[in-house]
Amino acid sequence: MQRPFYPEGDACHCYLLHPPGGVVGGDRLEIRVDVGAGAHVLLTTPAAGKFYRSGGRQAQQRVSIRIDGGNAEWMPQETIFYPGAVARQQTIVRMRTGSRFIGWEIACLGLSARAEPFTSGLLQQNFELWLEQRPLLVDVLQLDAAAPTLRARWGLAGNSVVGTFAAYPATRDDVEMLRGLEPGGESLAALTLVDGVLTGRCFGMQADAVKRRFVEWWKCLRPRIMRREAHLPRIWAT
Question: Which one of 36, 57, 114, 166 has the largest count of C-beta atoms within 10 Å of its C-beta?
Answer without folding.
Answer: 166
